[in-house]
Fold these 3 entries.
Entry 1:
Amino acid sequence: MTTRRTRPAPRPPEGTPPRAELARQARAVLADAVRIAHWAAGTPGPGTAAPLAAHALERAATALELSPAQVRAGWDRARLAGLVELHGDTARPGWRLRAWDRDDSAVLRGWVALFDAWSLVHAAPEGIEAGAVAEAVEAVPQVLSLLQLSAGPVTVPALLDLLGQRVAELHEERCEVPLGPGGSAPAASAAPAETAAATAGDRRSADINALLLDWALEGLAAVGALTLGKGHATLTPLGNWAVWVKLEQICVAAQSPAGNIEQSAADMLLGCARLTPGPARDEYRAWLAARTVGSAVGELLAVARGEDALLRGLAFEALRVVGAPAEPEVRAVLAEPSLRPYALLWLAEYEGNDPDDAQDVLSREEATWLWVDTAAAVADHGETGLLVRHLDSAVQGTVPALLDEVRAVGHPRTVQVLVALAAAHPDPALAKAVRRAAFQVHTGGA
C-alpha cells in the first residue's frame, strides 16, 4: 500500500463571481446563439454549411427580428458552443441547449468551448500567411496569462512585446534561423545593404505582430473574454475565470505521480484502478492534459477494445472526464458489441440523464452482456466476495433466469466467469447450478 497526498480543491482568484453569476454572464454572451439554436432545431433543413443557407438566413432574420449579420454570427457561435448539431440537412438541439436553463455547468462548458474557438469567431487579417496566424494563436495563452496575473488593464504595447517574444521563441524552438544569400547563415559583419534589409524585415514582422494582436484581442472580446479600452485590454470575469481554470489544469498535470503522465493509456488506467473516484479523475485529467484530445481518445478506445474488462470500464471513466470532445468517437463505437453498452451509458450521462437511471437505456441483452463483462473484471482483479455480491446487480430476478440469459448472450468470458462464480459462492446447490451452466456453455449444450 502506498499513501498519496491529495491536493486541496483550488479556489478561484479573489473577486471571482460565484458560478451562478458566471453562468448568467455566459448566457448573456450567447443569448442570440441560443435563440438561433432553438429556431434552427425547430426548422427543417436550415442548411449544413458553416453559414446558414441563404434562404434559411432570411427566414431566421425575419423570425427572430435580427439582422442577417447577427444571425450568421449567432449560428456560428451556436455550433461552436455545442448548442446545435447538424445531422445531414437537419439541425438538432445539442445536449447543452436542452440543459441550458437548468444547468450552470453546461452553460459554462458551452461558453468555454466558444472561448477556445475564438480564432474561428473573428476572421484573421487578409494577406498574412497562415503560418504567422497559427503562431499568433499559439502565443495567445501567454498573453492571456499576463492579463490574468495583472488582475487589471494591461497596455497594448506590453501585450505586443510579449506576443513578439513568444513568436520569436517559437521560431527558435523550431530552429528557424534567418538565412542569408545562397541559404547560408548571415555573416557576423553583414554589409550595410543586408543590415538595412534585416532591419526592414524586423519592422515588417513587428507590423504583422501588431495586426495579429489586434485581431486576437478583437476575437477574444467578441466571445466575451475581455474588454478593450483606449490602448489597453482587461479580462472580463468570465475570461479571468477561464484562464485560471486552464492554469489549474496545468498544475494538476504537474502534480501527477512520477511517470504517470508518460505512461500508455493501459498502464495509466491500471495505476488508477485502486484509487477512489476523485483522485482517479485527477489522474485522468493530468494524463489528458499532456496529450491532444484526438490522440488521447483514440488510445483510450484502443484499450477498451482489448481483452481486459477492467480497463474497458476504466477507459470509459476516463472518457467521461474528456466530455464533449469525445462524443463523436464514442457514438461511432455503438456498432461494436463489446463497447456498445459502455458507449450507451456514456452517452446517456453525457446527455444529462441521472447516472442511476442511465441503465434504462440498455436492452435486456445489453445489460446482461455488461453484467458478464463486469464480472470478468471482478474475477480478474477483485476479491471473491465482490463476485458473489455482483449477483445482486443482475437485472434478472432469479439465478436460473440469469444463467439462461448469460448462456445466450455470447460473451467470450462467460465460461470463466461462471466457473469463478461457482468456486466463490458459499451455497453448494447454487454453485452446482452455476458449474452446470458453465459446462453447458463450454460444450455448446442446451
Entry 2:
Amino acid sequence: MRCVIARFPFDLTKTGVLASMKGIKPEQVIGESVIIGRRTYPVKQVGQVITRQDRRDFSAGEVLRAMAQLGFTCRGGLTRTAATTLVLSPLQRASAMLGTPLTA
C-alpha cells in the first residue's frame, strides 16, 4: 500500500511492517499505540522504525492512518473528556454536577 508520511511516499505492506518491528522492544505507551503481533508499540516508535525518520518529522495521525489501512489494531490516547475529569478537583466536579460552575 502506498502512503505518505512526512511528505514522503512509502510502499508499506503488513508483512514488511511485521518484519521491520521484529526484535524491536516496545517503549512505554503513553498516548496512541499500535498492536503489531503480540506487542503494543507507541505510534511514534513504529513510525520511526518503518520510515527511518526522526519522530519530530511526522505526526502520530499519519502513522495511525497507515497502520489502520494495513489492518493493524490502533488505539487512541486519552480522550478529551477523560483528561478533563482527571484535572478537575472534587469541588469543581461537584459544582459542575450542580450546574453552577465554580469560577476562579
Entry 3:
Amino acid sequence: MTFARIHGWLRAHPLAGDAALAGVVLVCMVVGSFADPHGSNGPVFGTRTPSATALVLAVLGAVSLVLRRRNPLAVLGLTGGVTVADLLAGNSPAPIAIAPVVALYTVAAHTDRATTYRVGITTMGVLTATAMCFGDAPWYAQENVAVLAWTGLAATAGDAVRSRRAIVESIRERAERAECTREEEARRRVAEERLRIARDLHDVVAHHIALVNVQAGVAAHVMDKRPDQAKEALAHVREASRSALNELRATVGLLRQSGDPEAPTEPAPGLALLDDLLAGFRRAGLPVELAPLDPAVRTGLPAAVDLAAYRVIQEALTNVRKHAGPDAKAEVSVVRVGPNTEVTVLDNGSGNSDGAAGGGGGGHGLLGMRERVSALGGTCTAGPRYGGGFRVQAILPVKTADTARTALTRDAAAVRAAEGPGEGCA
C-alpha cells in the first residue's frame, strides 16, 4: 500500500521524482570516484581522490537528469558530452557513465524504436571508443566493456518499457471503445424497445377507444327509445374498456424493473385470439369476414410474427371502422405462402381512404404497421382498391424471423460464455 502511494505521488509529481533520481545518481558517481577498481581483492576505497574538474562534471551530468523527461535527446547529448570530457581528462569511465546510461534509457522509453536504435548505437560507439582510447586503463579493461554493456542494456530496457506502455494503452483504448460500443448498443436497444412499446400502446388505445366511442354513441342515441339496446351497448363499452385496461397493463408492465412486483404474466396477443378480436368489431357494427385459417398459421407462427400479424389486423380494422363509412364491410385473410405469411385486410368503404391508411388527422397507424413489419424484415403496403374501398397487406418472412431469433439466441449465449461466471454488465 505504501509503495502504491509513493508510485502515485511520483506519477503526479514527475519533476520531483527526477530530482530524487538525479540526487541518487550524483551520490553514486561521487562515491565511485573515490574507488579504485584495480585493487588486488576488488574495488578499494580511499586510495584515490577525484579532481575538482571530475566532481564538477559529475554534478553537471547529474543535474541535467532533472529535465530528462522534458527533453530526453538534449539531456542525453549533455550527459554524453560531460562523459566524453571526463574521459578525455583521463578519468575512469565507471562513475561518470551512469548519467548517460540513465539518459539513454529515458530516450528509449519516450521515443520510437528507430530513434532508439540510431541514438543508442551512436552513444554506445562514441562512449566505448572514447573510454578505450583516452581512459586511464588499457583499452581491453573491463570498465570499457562495461560502458558498452550498460549503454546497450539501458537502450534495451527503455525500448521494452515503451513497448509495454504501448500495449497497455492499446488495451485501455480497446476497453474504452468496447464500453462505448456497449453503451451505444444499449441505447439503441432502449430506443427500439420504446418504439415497440409506443406502437403497442397506439394499437391498443386506437382500437379499444374507437370501439368505446362507437358503442357510447349508440347508447346515447337509443337511450330514451330503446333502453335495452342502450344497456347492451354500454355492456360492450365496459367489455372493451376492460380489454383495453388489461392490454395496457400488460404493455406498461414491460417498463417495470425485473424485481418489481406484479409483473405481467399474460401472453402477448396473437392469431389465437383473432376470433375474439373480430367478434369485438362485429359487436361495434362492423361486419367482418375471416377467410378459412390454417390451424398451423393460427398457432404455429413465431411469437414476433404472430404479434405483428395480430396488430396489423387490429389497426387495419380500427381504421376501417373509423374512416370507411357506416356501411363498410371488411374481409381478413392470413395465409402461408412459402417462407412468408401474408396478412390482408380489405374493405369496401367509401369514406376517407387517407384516414383509413392511417394518415388522416396526423395519425400514425400505417406508419406503425410499416415499422412493425419492417422490424421483422417484411413489407407492408396500403392503398385504395380498384372499384372502391381500401386494401392493407403485410408480408411477414417467417423463416427470416426464426433465423434471426436463433442467431440472437446464439450470440447472447456466446456473449455470456465470453463473459464467464460471475461477470456482468457494469
